[in-house]
Amino acid sequence: MIRVASCFAQVLSMIDRYGFDRAVRDLDAERGAKGFRCRDQFVAMLFCQLGSANSLREICGGLSTALGKMVHLGLKEAPKRSTLAYANSHRPWQLYRGVFEQLLERCRVLAAERRRPFRFKNPLRVIDSTVIDLCQEVFDWARYRRAKGAIKLHLQLQDRGCLPCWALVTEGRTHDVRVAQGLSFDPGTIVVMDRAYTDYGMFGRWDAEGVFFVTRMKADARYEVVHSLPGGGGAFRGEEWIRLTGPAAEGCGCVLRRIRIWDAQNEREIVLLTNQRTLAAATIGRVYRYRWQIELFFKAIKQNLKIKTFVGTSENAVKTQIWTALIAILLLKFMQMKSSWQWSLSNLAAMLRFNLLTYRDLWEWLDDPFGVPIREPDTIQLTLAL
């Protein structure tokens, strides 16, 4: 007799059930619940992400057509659209932020075993944000511009495993610098970012705390040259050690490196600014190019998960969907790191979507996606609840 759950049920088993229930109790998230628990809501919203459902109708319809397979998900029956919509609008989205943080700890343990992309020992963090457009007439709480609504997703990516190690959802009008000013890093950390995060006072504070930064230098920056180094050929065009001047540079009196790198792909010169004074200029250039990984991450989450179209219109419903998307991307990263098959995130998300409710051993399938057969469950297994 074969006893195996669906792939979706095995994905759900990666979430610590005790930790989830504890978070529910801490937030009193099930106050007034009458049968439809937070766990049921989470299963439905994760199905929305991994199954690429575009509406409440598709979520509830997709689950209801699963027949006896729902028992492996912990569901007695598929939720009604009105029930799921009410839960998304009223149950605190902070619950799913807590689940994200719990799962992140598991992923960090697994990522610690992976090789880093650079030889230096300094921790590397990439920070950036992406704007998620919303219709202002429908999402009237998400004001961004005069005729446009939006919210902003801020992420911090670590180099080991390319994991999103921190996330924040804010109003679309929130400036990136304002978010960066509230971040703290361990001494020795190298923070990579684009020009939108330029704040010389913040740079001076980071330098005093032993935190390094690598960013693009603004064209209108005022500075005086302390000494210059000639280019060494190749992509390296030259380097100056400078001190920023002018009113904007108040609070940043340290000596910085201005490094000129030739971007052959776009045929332009890139000017970098950093307070890291020991690494070679060519290494600093490669560190900045690593910033592209967070752009690829944003592309992957927007293409493969549901954060561009929403199944609810309230602020709570939108944030619930975004945090379940971040949980889904962590689950995909966890499976990607643990599998011996060379998965890309896009291929893994697509193949898992096709096999979400099939019965097979998930980990065997991840290691050999084209060789592990589907297993048919027995009748007793289809009728027993978890």
Can you lay out the helices and strands and say which pair or pack?
Elements: H1 7-12, H2 17-27, H3 38-50, H4 56-64, H5 81-90, H6 94-111, E1 124-134, E2 143-145, E3 148-158, E4 164-171, H7 176-180, E5 190-192, H8 200-209, E6 212-216, E7 223-233, E8 236-244, E9 256-263, E10 268-274, H9 281-289, H10 292-304, H11 315-338, H12 345-354, H13 362-367, H14 379-383
Parallel strand pairs: 1-5, 5-6
Antiparallel strand pairs: 1-3, 2-3, 3-4, 6-10, 7-8, 8-9, 9-10
Helix pairs in contact: 2-6, 3-4, 3-11, 5-11, 6-11
Walkthrough of the structure:
The two termini are 18 Å apart. Strands 1, 2, 3, 4, 5, 6, 7, 8, 9 and 10 form a ten-stranded mixed beta sheet that branches. Among the domains are: 7-96 and 311-383, no CATH class; 194-279, no CATH class. The model has no long low-confidence stretch (mean pLDDT 89). With 386 residues, the protein is of the alpha+beta class. Helix 3 packs across helix 11 and helix 6 (94-111) packs parallel to helix 11. It is globular and about 75 Å long. The chain has helices spanning 7-12, 17-27, 38-50, 56-64, 81-90, 94-111, 176-180, 200-209, 281-289, 292-304, 315-338, 345-354, 362-367, 379-383, and strands at 124-134, 143-145, 148-158, 164-171, 190-192, 212-216, 223-233, 236-244, 256-263, 268-274. The protein contains 14 helices and ten strands. Helix content is 39%, strand content 20%.
